[in-house]
């Protein structure tokens, strides 16, 4: 095998390596793109759920204040006093239910989404740093082509 033949086989190998790298890069870029879109979706959902938690907690506080608000002229209602007690009791129960719902949303929905977003950031970071290594390999493969 002469020097020219050897250079040709290296160039062919380098050309194949470059093509293989390009196909791999497209696949990695596709996965990284999907991860980033997933991160954005998780963030949007988490923001919406946090707003829902805030609204539920505010509503719960307002209902609780309404249920504990002293009524003027309570003595004047006569036999309807029992019904007023039922309405106030139901309002207080509704306030507690909304507070519980807010806590469930925060713990079981928003928390896991935030955790998943943190994990996705770590994967995205790894993919970005791996990309710089792949770029260096591409430069080396291109250098072989020039020989």
Summarize the structure.
This protein is mostly helical and 147 residues long. It contains two helices and no strands.
Structure, explained:
The chain has a single domain (3-146), classed as Methyl-accepting chemotaxis protein (Helix Hairpins, Orthogonal Bundle), CATH 1.10.287. Helices cover 90% and strands 0% of the residues. It has helices at 3-68, 81-146. The radius of gyration is 32 Å and the shape is rod-shaped. It starts with a helix and ends with a helix. Mean pLDDT is 76; it is low at 1-11 and 139-147.
Key terms:
single chain; 147 residues; mainly alpha; Helix Hairpins; 2 helices; 90% helix; disordered N terminus; disordered C terminus
Low-confidence blocks of residues:
1-11, 139-147
- The gross shape turns out to be rod-shaped
Our measurement of the CA-to-CA distance between the termini, rounded to an integer number of angstroms, reads 16 Å
CATH topology: Helix Hairpins
CATH H-level superfamily: Methyl-accepting chemotaxis protein
Report the radius of gyration as a whole number of Å: 32 Å
Sheet/helix structural class: mainly alpha
Q: What is the H/E string?
A: HH
| Total strands | 0
| Integer average pLDDT | 76
Q: What is the highest CATH level, the class?
A: Mainly Alpha
Quickly give the CATH architecture: Orthogonal Bundle
Total of DSSP H or I helical runs spanning 4+ residues: 2
Q: Share of helix among residues?
A: over 70%
Q: Biggest sheet: strands, sense, closure?
A: none
Q: What amount of the residues lies in strands?
A: under 5%
Number of domains: 1
Main location: cytoplasm
Subcellular location: Cytoplasm
Domain FCH: 21-105
Protein name: FCH domain-containing protein
């Amino acid at each position: 095998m002469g020097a020219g033949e050897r250079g040709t086989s290296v160039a062919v190998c380098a050309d194949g390596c470059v093509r293989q790298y390009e196909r791999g890069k497209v696949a990695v870029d596709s996965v990284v793109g999907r991860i980033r879109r997933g991160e954005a979706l998780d963030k949007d959902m988490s923001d919406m759920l946090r707003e829902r938690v805030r609204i539920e907690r505010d509503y719960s506080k307002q209902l609780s204040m309404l249920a504990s608000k002293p009524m003027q002229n309570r003595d004047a209602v006569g036999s309807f006093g029992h019904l007023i007690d039922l309405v106030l009791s139901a309002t207080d129960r509704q306030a507690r239910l909304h507070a519980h719902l807010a806590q469930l949303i925060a713990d079981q929905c928003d928390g896991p989404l935030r955790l998943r977003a943190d994990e996705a950031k770590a994967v995205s970071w790894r993919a970005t740093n791996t990309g710089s290594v792949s770029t260096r390999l591409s430069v080396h493969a291109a250098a072989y082509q020039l020989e």
